[in-house]
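[job 4471] stage=fold_predict status=RUNNING
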Amino acid sequence: MKNTISSKKNKNYEKEVLIALAGNPNVGKSTIFNKLTGMKQHTGNWAGKTVSNVTGKCIYKGIKYTFADIPGTYSLLSHSKEEDEARNFICFKKPDITVVVCDASCILRNLNLVLQIIEITDNVILCLNLMDEAGKKGIKINIPLLEERIKIPVIPMTASKNKGFKLLMEKINYITINNKKINTIKIKYDTITEKAIEIILNEIENYDFYGLNKRWLALRLIESEYDFINILKENTDITEYEVSILSKALEKACEFLYNNKINNCKIRDKIADGIIKTSEKIGNGIINSNASAYSYKDRFLDNILTGKYTAYPIMFLILMIIMWITIKGANYPSAILSDFLFSKEDILFSFFLDIGVPIYLCEMIVFGVYRVLCWVVSVMLPPMAIFFPLFTLLEDLGYLPRMAFNMDCCFKKCNACGKQGLCMAMGFGCNAVGVSGCRIIDSPRERLIAIITNSFVPCNGRFPTLIAIITMFFVGTGAYTGLFSAFMLSSIIIFGIIMTLIVSKILGNTILKGVPSSFTLEMPPYRKPQITTVIINSIFDRTLFVLGRAVSVAIPAGLIIWLMSNTFINNNSILSIVCEFLDPFASIFGLDGVILTAFILGFPANEIVIPIIIMAYMGNTSLTEMESINSLKSLLINNGWTIQTALSVIIFSLMHWPCSTTCLTIKKETGSIKWTVISIIVPVICGLSICGILNIIFKII
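[job 4471] inference complete, writing structure tokens
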């Protein structure tokens, strides 16, 4: 569906109309948004993908519509960031129409949110998406009866197949042009709650209060008490006099509830009970279902993927398969890309000479900046182009929420949140992406734990170092090298996950002490992934985005490395001087000065650690690539590498400071230098501690 649906001008309507798209997580809301606006908001088959408002525009029959994709949420009772964002947008941005997207295969559960939105605003349209999945499950919905009971328009839709969009836009257009106000259903609560509402309404009936629905405002006051008055202060220009009116009304209602032995928890339960009973009344008899066979298939798969004895082995197997495909698949395109990019060095060097650039600047640009860029692009791009689509396929299949479910028990024991498992999985592709993904965690304390520990899972930038060392010192070459490397790499990743849990536990009991919060995680149905869309979106939305950030920080890194290796003091380069200076300290942890210097200079991009090690050992003035893995192994052994050194480098590669891109992302997400520094210090302490213990063990042996 194109974002400009019609160019026909409606001269009677010049206003730009704001439409809010609301709904539960995982109902296809972002897909509908993309189809309507022509944008590329990323979608995934799990909850929490959208945690902020995204807007896009389209024109239909001459009217300009702005669509806002607000966060998916199960309610508006404000227990999480998503609920805050969704509620505040509908209340204070005052959309002209709110389209509530629901999953047709579980409409009864979705009605709770619909009713809460109906209490806030008059103009609501119910969009029943995923009608095709409901049909596959044998679910038939009596739409006319549903419309009659809920008293708002109901639009059946299958967004993935472009069905229902015309009907939806026609209904939106009709309400807009006719300024149609919908007489929606009214939720009836128990006698005590209704009396408390009436007390507040009698006190505030002569005041506007930002045009909010006064019955809904009364409900929020008796539910949230003074918290909602503070929210009004933050989002409106409410006067102190109006605040005093609300406070007086609230005091009278609270006194009445107290006299009837109703506390805040009980009133919340009564409000929720009223919504649920109304939802059940509306839903009674509107569904004709024969879904037993379809449900059996989902339950059978869930029994395997989330089973007590099968969940973790399957997770490890899936991880190993993904690592194997990434390793094997990335080798050839990486070599081709490397050969192509490095073959242009001489051409680029000659070009700069021909235009009169001084030779030292030519060497700095070509052998410094350009060569580092070649390394970063050729090493990062192929594995990311393979890993991210595979990861996105797991999203679309619906496996990632099940992975979070499996990990929830472990994280809860560590005073953390099960959603951290999803952020951790995103970190395999790029730790910066994993840190950004921590937005889906509601608790600020648990979000910080997830951010600080995200670098314990290796990203694509660390895979080349890990794979090279595994191959040289533990696997060797042969027919099953790729499979053995994938197994060992997966085992290292499992160790990183264990460290994530241990450090999360320590943080949760010390500087981020607190009780683990509960969260709602819906198990979405298993869906056939849209492979073409997955590949295109994962490459453009993730791979190229992450690569662009890595390239931007690799440019100054290439310049610094070249200057250090080409600036001499007493016939010694600054690079060699730094390596010698760090050598005594590094030897305590089973490393040497060259290795530690390489990790420090690899701060902008982890991909250049091995090339820097090679360059320092060979005494070259620019990054160098070895002809074969065997020649690289010989170089390392000749410079004192042993099995212990290899293990120490693997551990330190797994646990050291996050790259510069991740650090910038941490600063952006936390808004704090303090937590950024802590996110650097924590993995460094863990990595050096384990390397130091390993060094002592090897000396004793």
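[job 4471] summary: The two ends are 69 Å apart (CA to CA).
[job 4471] exit 0
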